[in-house]
């Protein structure tokens, strides 16, 4: 009996120690960007900072576009004291119209179409599109927000409109999707609503984030896809820290299919972002490992990415 109790005690201590070590390993904490830059003797560029950009180039465009889905795995919880943007859809084009989206640790936007008061509810998902020439304003009539969701129409990044919804994502795997939806006729011309959803692989829940309206009823998706990890600034947190985090982007699926790859690469611009991310390939996925800042080699780093079965 005493031997059994001793074994149980040792096992309990071992598991408690293991949990403690894992928790410490998965902490996002590290010195501030200012401290890391000072230690390296380098100057920080203005934010936002694209820590890594990933590009897939396919063998051709996709006619009859219906959906885009990308899996993303985040290895640790990122609190809303950071401004971290994990974008499985870094930029995309249908019929030449640009959109992007992903998960943010601190979304912000207007509480309603009638309000221009900016609110910061914490973690959430975002889906934005630009006007056809990025110069013509695009209003909130192109936005369908959910109850409790946010919206915005502005021109500080080119003329765009956007939906954002609070969503308490944590460490885990999610599928971010843009899906062709219902049609609407405006002055006799067809328009299509595209819906944004995020599915948690932990419980299978698929959450609708809102929709954006695009001109037309038939769409061609361009011959590439992109993803990025970014640290941005807000009025709530104008100087965000850079968290330690490992983000894994799955191979993009267009209309449910992995298109044949022509080439892929990762890129970082040392003139516009502090260098603190490494990029590697794991099977069919791309891993972005964000950590301590390092002295850049040259103005930027472009790395070819080689996938299995290509």
Quick structural gist:
The protein is 10% helix and 48% strand. With 310 residues, it is mostly beta strands. It has a nine-stranded antiparallel beta sheet with strand order 7-8-5-4-3-12-1-15-18, with no helix packed on it. Strands 2, 6, 9, 10, 11, 13, 14, 16 and 17 form a nine-stranded antiparallel beta sheet that branches.
How would you summarize the topology of this molecule?
Elements: H1 2-25, H2 33-40, E1 49-58, E2 67-74, E3 84-94, E4 97-110, E5 118-130, E6 143-145, E7 150-154, E8 160-166, E9 172-186, E10 189-200, E11 206-215, E12 224-231, E13 245-249, E14 253-254, E15 261-269, E16 277-282, E17 285-290, E18 300-304
Give an overview in words.
It is a single chain. The model is unreliable at 1-24 (pLDDT under 50). The chain has a domain at 61-240. The chain is mostly beta strands. The chain has a nine-stranded antiparallel sheet with strand order 7-8-5-4-3-12-1-15-18, with no helix packed on it. 10% of the residues lie in helices and 48% in strands.
Question: What's the number of helices?
Answer: 2
Note the run of SSEs as H and E: HHEEEEEEEEEEEEEEEEEE
Q: State which percent range the strand residues make up.
A: over 45%
Largest sheet: 9 strands, antiparallel
Overall pLDDT confidence = 92
Strand order of the largest sheet: 7-8-5-4-3-12-1-15-18
Question: How much helical structure, as a percent, in the residues?
Answer: 10-25%
Shape descriptor = globular
- Per DSSP E runs of 2 or more residues, the count of β-strands stands at 18
Structural class: mainly beta
Instruction: Specify Rg, calculated over alpha carbons.
Output: 21 Å
Gap from first CA to last CA:
59 Å
Residue stretches low in confidence (pLDDT < 50, at least 5 long) are 1-24
